[in-house]
Every structure is written in C-alpha cells, then in structure tokens.
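pasting for the record
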Amino acid sequence: MRVAVLGARGLIGGAVVRRAILAGHHVRAIVRPGGGVAGFPAGTEVIAADLRSRESVVDAVRRMEVVVHAASVPYPEWPRVVPLLADNAFAAAAATGATLVFPGNVYVYGRPRSRFVTEDHPQEPHTVKGRVRLAVERRLLQAHQDGRVDLVLPRYPDVYGPGGMHDDVRPVFEGALTGRPCRWPLDADALHEFILNDDAAEAMLKLLGTPAAHGRAVHVPGPGPIVSRDFIRLVYRAAGSGEPTVRVFGRGMYRLVGLFNPMARAAYEMAYLFEDPILLDGTLYRSLTGSRPPATPYEDGVPRTLEWFRSHRTTA
C-alpha cells in the first residue's frame, strides 16, 4: 500500500509513518517546505509541500493509494485554516483516487450525555472548534456517501506519545523531567483518557483494511479512563521525580492569561473536557474488526514518551 501522510512530523502523523513503514508499506511523508528529511525511518520518501495550497497537495500525493490528513494548526487558526487544509486534502485524495483518512477527536459531541459515548451520541458542539470539526466531518462523510472519496474516520481521545504533546499535557512531562510543579486544567481529580500515538496509528491501519469501517466514524479508545492526578503521578514516578505538585489552572486564570495570550484564549473553550470528560466506547471497533483496539497500558506508554522528551531536550 502506498501511503501519503500530511503533517508527517506531528504527533499522529509521525506515528503513522513509523507504523506504516514497519508494516511494509511505501510511505511518503509530506512536510513543510524547508523542514528537511531527517528524523524519519529508513525507506521513507520525504516530500515538501505547502498544505495551504491545493495544487501543492495534489502534486505531493500523486500515485498514492491512501492520504492521511494528520496536519494540525494552532488553536487560534482553527476557524480559518482547518477547513482549508481539509478541503485541500479531500481534493488531493479525490484527484488521485486515494482513500482519505481523517483522524477525529471528541470535540464534535459537546458535553457528554452518558458515561461512555458511542458513535450515535448527539453531536451538539457548543464551542467554535467543535463546530469547525463537525462541519468538516459532515462534508467529508457526505462526499463519501456521494462516491467522491473513500473515507476512514477514526475518533480518538487525547493523544500522547513520542513526538510531541498537546499544550495542556506537555507541562506534566516537562515538570516530571525537571522535578518542578506542573499545571493542569480545571480539575485534576476528574477522569480522563489518553491513547498512545503508536496505538492510534496501528488502529488507523486496521480500519483502513476493514471495508465495513469506511464511511463512518469509529471510536478508538485508549487503555481506559484514569484519574488525571493519577496519570500525573505515574509520569513523575517514571521520571524519578517523586510526588508531583499539581497547580490547577482554573477558569479565572484562563481568562486572565487569555487577555494577552491568544493560545490560552483559544484553549479556554475546550477546557470543559478536563472536568466533564468524554470517554469513548470501543464496541463498534471490536465489532467491525474482530479485535480490540491496541491499548498500550499507561505504565508502558509513559516511559516511552518520557524517553522521547529526554532525547528531544538533549538534542534541542
């Protein structure tokens, strides 16, 4: 299988490159102009492209059988750029006849109505970013239904792992490596769920090979929900830093910092997920594929992530 990965240096994109190469596929990593070719597994074809240019993306994925749209942008750019990148990825996949893979998240649901959320949960996003994601997903699902593209849409909880981290989770790993306090949004005693990026990539490849999974969202949960404070403790113990000091980043602090920090201002609307989490039900994945989603235990995934952070800090 010939796989093109847009956003190949990102948290999910980098994992897809690794897992696809390991599975014996031909992988074309699409990177930003000037990004260089270093850091990819042997055998990876690396091509530079401007993902904001439709022509550039179409040229970059020619002769590919799968286009994975794993590119991301900072929160403040979402309303304008996320639809643009998705449209370009769709146009490129359609032009070459490739299957389009669009990794999804829980933003489209809004606040959960049940403890565990299935794919038929109402989609009622109350945030700008949730509405942006929902509009993009609906366009792509309609395009699949109309026969204009073949779509695979895995939906993940928060992703962590070697290669990077969401801004809300990164301070935990940085704090653990330095032995300093870390911050956490809203409620450190609420449940949360994470998935290792390599598991997310492995599940994506499994869904690609499962025809019944195409044209619909399919949940890919992690190893299970965990109390956020316990996850933080696990990270600090794995780093040898002892008991962590957790400084909860409350709503008032979000609003204060947001006065002069566009990223904090844009992140504030998604903070509800750290006190009212969406926990994904994986029954449909098991039914379609005949297997459980790959779910590396936190006790194994956290040390692997810390090791990447150590090496990244050393070489930075």
